[in-house]
Each structure stands twice: as structure tokens, then as C-alpha cells.
Amino acid sequence: MYFTMKKNIAIVMGGFSSEVNISLKSGGVVYNNLDRQKYNPFKVHIFKEKWIVVVENAEYPIDKNDFSVRINDTKITFDCVFNAIHGTPGEDGKILAYFDLIGMKHTSAPFYQMALTFNKRDCLSVVKHYGIPTAKSVYLNKGDKINTSKIIKVVGLPCFIKPNNAGSSFGISKVYSAEEFMVGIEKAYKEDSEILIESFLDGTEVSVGVIQYKGALKVLPITEITTENDFFDYEAKYQGKSKEITPARISEEIAEKVRIIAKKVYLILNMSGFSRSEFILVNNEPHFLEMNTVPGLTEESILPQQANQANISLSDLFDNAIEMALNK
């Protein structure tokens, strides 16, 4: 089963956040699509209580000293880690700092870039500095005094209240009145001790993948997001309450603006590996919302849809990520 010729790839999935099940699904898709001629893939479940390799329903503990595993008296070490953990500790860089310390190659950007992009507030602060349009925003830390009328004066109504460090739209509210304000704040604080309150941008939402592909930066076809719900929330994302249209129904002129700004954001943030950025088009100008650095990788997810439009199969997409990591 384990040949030295093939590369051993650890696909890390799971994590410590509300996104654990989505991550397990993404990791499973990576596992199923890796080329068995080149790779021996292993499913590695990272949970707070245990780090394990799962082989045919049997669990084998990871040795955290060198991220190896012993299976039936054979010690297996990995050539590369494929990061499929949405949320903490994969998307916020924590586990990547550990991989850097032990000299393990991985498919994500360096840990600092991952931490920066995961923190919506800090990420927006950097891109604003480079003149990228964004929503008006106010930040709060748990325990801060809340002056509702003052905040509404800055961001207006309706507005969005979101956890600063959570993915998959967990804990987000769209608030229409001062009365609903505290409910939204409490909901966001359930997910994070830092929250972000943003003005509502009225326009078309688009999502665009920027990846390193075959040694060059590639902007994937743009997806337009329409939802039956009030905004692109968890239900819209994962329970079929939204439509993702790729390529987006926008003019070539606007599409080119989105491509230029998406590439610029990727370079400003010093990214590598996968990324998927969200924008709202207000008066045909793309306003940056956020960047996902471990985007969903299931067949229905946006980035794979975009890759498919660009004639890149899932197998090619994942193979490319591993090749780029191995050649770093």
C-alpha cells in the first residue's frame, strides 16, 4: 500500500470551528480526486481532542513531534500536507505555524498571511491602505461600551453585524433597526470576541478565485451570487437557498475591473495557494468584502465551479496545489 515512489499526502480536515462538517466534506473530495498513480493520500482528522489518521474506519494517532503516524508497525511520514480545514486552526494559520516549525510543506500561504486574511478587520485595514473600496465599518471587542446611535451614524441602516474571525456566515445578522441591533451583536459575540459592523452595500455580489496555477497567477471565471434569503448566509450557502451563476452576468468591462482588483488584493496580501475573494458591485465599482484562503472544495463549492469553467478538473486543481507546495 505505501510505496516510496509515490508521495505521501496528509489531507488535514475537521478543525475546531462551526465549519467542521463542511471541512470533512471538502477533505473527502480532495481524498477522492487525488491521482493514485502519484500520491498515497491519507485522511487526517484534526479535532481538539485528537489528531488521527483514518484508514478504513480505524483510527491511528498522529505523533505531533514530527506529524508522522504508525500504521501496523510501519512509520509513515508525509511529503506534504493538503490543508482543507475551514476556520481555525487551518484557515487562521495556527496549524501552519506548527508545520513551518517542523519543516513540513503545505498547500496554503504562510501562516501570517493566513492569519491576516482570516481576521476581517485587519485584512480590510491593509487593503483600504492601497485604495481598494470597502464598506464603511466599525469594530468592537467584547466588553466595549456600545453606543448604538453613534455606530448607526457611521454605517447607516440596514447594516451587517458579523464575527471578525468566523467563516461560512456563522453569526452574521443583517440589522434593519436600532431595536434589532443588540440581538445581532449578541449573536456575533457567540462566535467571536471581536465583531465587525459594516454598512450595507447595495449591489451585485460576485466571488472570484485567484490561484497559483502552473507557476503563474490565474484569475478564475467570476461567479455571481443571488440568494432567496436576505443575504448570502449559511442556509443560502449550504442548503440550496442561493444560485451561483458562473460566469457572472456582468459586462466584460466590469468583469475586467473585478479581475484586476482581485489580482491586486491577492498581491497586496502577499498570498499564495488558493484564494476566493468576495466583492459587491456598487455603481459598477467592485467593493472588497473578504478573502477565503481555504474555500469550500466540494463539487458544488464556488471555487471548483470556477475551475470547471476554466477547464481545470478537481484532480488537476488539487494536483497543482501539491506540486506547487512541493516545489516551494
Oligomer: single chain
Distance between the termini: 27 Å
Assign the CATH superfamily of the largest domain. ATP-grasp fold, B domain
Radius of gyration: 20 Å
Helical percentage: 25-40%
Question: Helix segment count?
Answer: 10
Order of helices and strands: EHEEEEEEHHHEHEEHEEEEHEHEEHH
CATH class annotation of the largest domain: Alpha Beta
Which architecture name of the largest domain does CATH use? 2-Layer Sandwich
Mean pLDDT: 92
Structural class label: alpha+beta
Uncertain regions: pLDDT < 50 for 5+ in a row?
Answer: 234-239
Strands of the widest sheet, in order across it, are: 6-5-4-3-2-1-7
Work out the number of β strands: 17
Brief synopsis:
This protein is α+β, with helices and mostly antiparallel strands and 328 residues long. The protein has ten helices and 17 strands. About 2% of the residues have low confidence.
3D structure, described in words:
This protein has 328 residues and is of the alpha+beta class. The protein folds into 3 domains: 7-108, Rossmann fold (3-Layer(aba) Sandwich); 115-132 and 202-293, D-amino Acid Aminotransferase, Chain A, domain 1 (2-Layer Sandwich); 137-199, 2-Layer Sandwich (Dna Ligase, domain 1), CATH 3.30.1490.20. The protein contains 10 helices and 17 strands. It has helices at 20-33, 94-102, 111-118, 120-129, 148-155, 178-191, 234-238, 252-268, 302-309, 314-326; strands at 7-14, 39-46, 51-55, 58-63, 68-71, 74-76, 80-83, 137-141, 159-163, 173-175, 194-199, 204-213, 216-219, 223-227, 242-245, 276-282, 285-292. Strands 6-5-4-3-2-1-7 form a 7-stranded mixed β-sheet. Strands 12, 13, 14, 15, 16 and 17 form a 6-stranded antiparallel β-sheet that branches. It has a 4-stranded antiparallel β-sheet with strand order 8-11-9-10. The chain starts with 6 loop residues before the first strand and ends with a helix. The relative contact order is 0.14. Residues 234-239 have low confidence and may be disordered.
